[in-house]
Design brief:
The chain is of the alpha+beta class and 289 residues long. Helix content is 22%, strand content 36%. The strands form 4 sheets. A 7-stranded mixed β-sheet has the order 1-4-5-7-8-11-12, with no helix packed on it. A 7-stranded antiparallel β-sheet has the order 2-3-6-9-10-13-14. The radius of gyration is 20 Å and the shape is globular. It comes from Siphonobacter aquaeclarae.
Length: 289
């Protein structure tokens, strides 16, 4: 479908000019938000803005993922904070969903093995099928496999998306742009802010031990640690992001431990102070320099 067909489909006239960069960025931001396969909301957009959005899509700005096949009818699995869930997909592939995770897949999944990680973290054990690749969509990132075990971490609150391979190989892309071919114990971290990637060696099996209640975080940002604690114990950690933006630490805990025990560990490692009030934990400290 070309640009003119897109305008015709939505009953819009094609604009005679390209929107300026500022408008283009705003439109892209809105597209990123609204194509996240969230609950449907009724919104009214100005025709000019919709037209400009279509122009960007037709012009090839992230065309592959922007126009990815959204399931007309979908199955959604939502796991609340403080819980972990194991599911079996229609093709017999297995998925473990971490706390506060939302996963969607179409009713035609047997013919089209695509899942959409709308929010959260998931570990996939994919049934091998050379005729039908298995694809995980997480924001602008797509991970494609034939049969392997890997995890995708894509919480909306975090500034990055991570893909780690426990066994086999996966191909990671951003729209039409190949990012990496990863093998066992390799991980790619994609920055949502500057769209840069970093590949590292990891003990991939450690990254998915949350399935059994063991949370292992190695050399991660403070926001990663705060989010992991918050999701595991269904609380919100409030802290000054600028103060802790340069902090990188490691933390290992078990979800059978109490929240205060885990926060005491974090205090010893990071030198923070904390105060618990209901479901909110206030964090203070000098951060890292």
């Amino acid at each position: 479908m070309d640009k003119k067909d897109l305008y015709k489909k939505f009953g819009l006239e094609e604009p005679g000019h390209t929107p300026p960069d500022g408008v283009r960025r705003e439109i892209l931001g809105r597209i990123h938000d609204t194509l996240g396969f969230r609950e449907k909301k009724v919104r009214r957009f100005r025709p000019a803005l919709v037209a400009a959005s279509l122009a960007l899509v037709a012009g090839g700005v992230g065309a592959t993922w922007l126009l990815s096949r959204r399931p007309a009818t979908a199955e959604t699995v939502a796991v609340p904070a403080g819980q972990v869930r194991h599911i079996i997909l229609p093709d017999s592939s297995e998925v473990w969903l971490n706390a506060a995770t939302r996963l969607t897949y179409g009713e035609d999944f047997r013919q089209n093995r695509e899942v959409f990680l709308e929010d959260g973290e998931a570990f996939f054990k994919v049934r091998h099928d050379t005729t039908a690749p298995f694809v995980v969509h997480a924001g602008v990132i797509q991970t494609r496999v034939l049969g392997t075990t890997f995890r995708v971490k894509a919480y909306r609150e975090l500034s990055n998306i991570r893909v780690s391979v426990v066994s086999g190989k996966v191909a990671v892309r951003e729209g039409n742009k190949p990012l990496a071919i990863l093998g066992k114990d390799q991980e790619i971290t994609y920055s949502k802010t500057d769209r840069k990637t970093v590949e590292t060696r990891v003990e991939a099996e450690e990254t998915v031990q949350w399935q059994s209640g063991n949370v292992v975080l190695r050399s991660v940002s403070f926001e990663d640690i705060a989010l992991a604690i918050g999701k595991a114990y269904d609380v919100t950690l409030v802290f000054d992001r600028e103060t802790f933006s340069r902090c990188e630490s490691s933390l290992v805990f078990n979800t059978h431990q109490s929240l205060t025990e885990v926060l005491d560990l974090l205090r010893d490692i990071q030198g923070i102070n904390y105060h618990i009030q209901g479901k909110e934990v206030s964090i203070s400290g000098t951060g890292c320099h």
